[in-house]
Amino acid sequence: MQWAKIGASAAALAIAAAAQAEPPRLVRQGSATQISVQGKPMLLIAGELGNSSASSAAYMAQHWKRLKAMHLNTVLAPVSWELIEPEEGRFDFSSVDALIRDARANDLKLVILWFGAWKNSMSTYVPAWVKRDQGRFPRARLPNGQGVEILSAMAPATLEADQRAFAALMAHIKAVDDRQNTVLMTQVENEIGMLPVARDYGALADAAFKAPVPAELTTYLQQHRDVLVPQMKRLWEEQGSRTSGTWSEVFGPGHAAEEIFTAWHYARFADALARASKAVYPMPLYVNVALNRPGRLPGEYPSGGPLPHLIDIWKAGAPAIDFLAPDIYFPNFVDIVNIYKRPDNPLFVPEANNADHPQVPGNAFYAIGKLDAIGFGPFSIESIDEKPGALGEAYDLLEQLSPHILAAQGVGRMSAFRPKSLYDETLVHEPVTETIGNYRFTVAFADIQKPVATPDTGNAAGIIIQTGPEDYLIAGQGITVTFAPVGAGPSLAGIDSAWEGHFDAHGTWIAGRLLNGDQTHQGRHIQLPTGDFQIQKVRLYRYQ
Ligand code: DGJ
């Protein structure tokens, strides 16, 4: 195997490509998808701003430096339709320009969140000229005919207006940013979904609900029968795997058909926005999802978003959207990210708890190191930038490790570890064993002498990256790692050397203490103490 020389060659490439005018793009590396910015892969060590912060450059002025000091390289920031098109056809991009200017001044990248027709289901960020013209931009309606503050996805005028504004935003970003690529990608709308019922009951929606299911959807179901999400496959097959018929005929008489109908129309809307904007400036686009609590009905949660049971509908309806991204505020982070990481869907986590939640660092490590995530961002990042605590330390490690993580994603040289939390917050903290290269690692989250969970156990975070045949970077906090050789040869593994240290700004390893005594329990294991995020450079060897 060729072991990558990290640093110099990638930097040279980046400089050579810097003058090219092209948007960032998604590229494959083995089984991973990465974002390539000016010819160089980038790991998004990110955080999402609270909803209102980016509407004021003056408010944000105090935060940029602190976000950078917290080791973020990317900020997720809303751009709202009402601010960029205050009167129909008159665009004002000053809020976007200020964001780009201030991000650049602080050496940060941006992911833009398009607060267009919908933000958390509702239509509160649309311009007043849209809000007030219910004739041209009809509302979704309840079964009793009452309107809700949600634009109907069925109205061509709404799609046209949102599409025009979104494409104008992309044209502006292209004009001001196609050489610098401060803007890396864009989220289309925010947490789409119908409330408080499963579907829109307006006249257009009622007519469409009685019409046949579009052939594009039934063809997709047929062509992907073997890989459909189990819930979708069961539902479709229970109705006889029909390839034509109304929504209730193909998907059954209950709420499920109404929710699938809703998902299809939201997906088509998002796809139309994506197509219009990619024609102007083809940067990566994604849609985020407000997850549903188990046992609730569609409408009690935002119905029809790209939820786990609706991924197939969104993939069929929105092929121009590059990926679907989960916002995760539930404790079962591990289960959720494993659903969204699919061969047709790279993982990106735009929101994952509020930034001060103690499990955020472990979640970041797991998403990036185990599931090759493009990036990770907790919510309300600026609310902790004065006292970043554990997240600042975790992001420091991810920043230092970034070139090694990027080189290892998708090629089987890395894994990451955190105890698994179930939906009811039960912690599964048994040790986890995985083979990475020529050694099998067992990672324990509680003290291996006394394996009883403490209040800190759930916050453990670990990542192991193979950098040579017997060389590994082991980083994080609150884990103990033992190892065994795999394959033929001597059956025991020992520590040749274990150094603590850090990577400097040029990516050069600066060694600290050599850890051959109590810190490795006299060579028995690698230990990353609880509460102390650190990197150890470890060389293993085999003996009989
Ligand atoms: C999820 C939304 O996407 C965010 O915009 C924000 O409203 C958070 N919820 C608040 O927790």
Outline of the structure:
This protein is α/β, with parallel strands linked by helices. It is 31% helix and 26% strand.
Describe the structure.
The strands form six sheets. This protein has an eight-stranded parallel beta sheet. The chain has a six-stranded antiparallel beta sheet with strand order 14-19-20-25-22-23, with helices on one face. It is globular and about 75 Å long. The chain is 31% helix and 26% strand. It has 544 residues and is an alpha/beta fold. Residues 7-18 have low confidence and may be disordered. It is built from 16 helices and 25 strands. Bound molecules: (2R,3S,4R,5S)-2-(hydroxymethyl)piperidine-3,4,5-triol. (2R,3S,4R,5S)-2-(hydroxymethyl)piperidine-3,4,5-triol binds next to loops. (2R,3S,4R,5S)-2-(hydroxymethyl)piperidine-3,4,5-triol is lined by residues 51, 120, 190-191, 327, 351, 379.
Low-confidence stretches: 7-18
Alpha-carbon Rg, integer: 24 Å
Widest sheet: strand ordering: 12-11-10-9-6-5-4-13
For the report, how would you describe the main beta sheet?
A: 8 strands, parallel
Percent helix, as a range, is 25-40%
- Percent in strands: 25-35%
The quaternary structure here is single chain
Q: For the terminal residues, how far apart are their CA atoms?
A: 25 Å
- Quantity of strands, as a count: 25
Bound molecules: (2R,3S,4R,5S)-2-(hydroxymethyl)piperidine-3,4,5-triol
Mean pLDDT: 95
Number of helices: 16
Summing up helix and strand content along with how strands pair, one would put the structural category as alpha/beta
Which overall shape is indicated by the principal axes computed on the Cα atoms?
globular
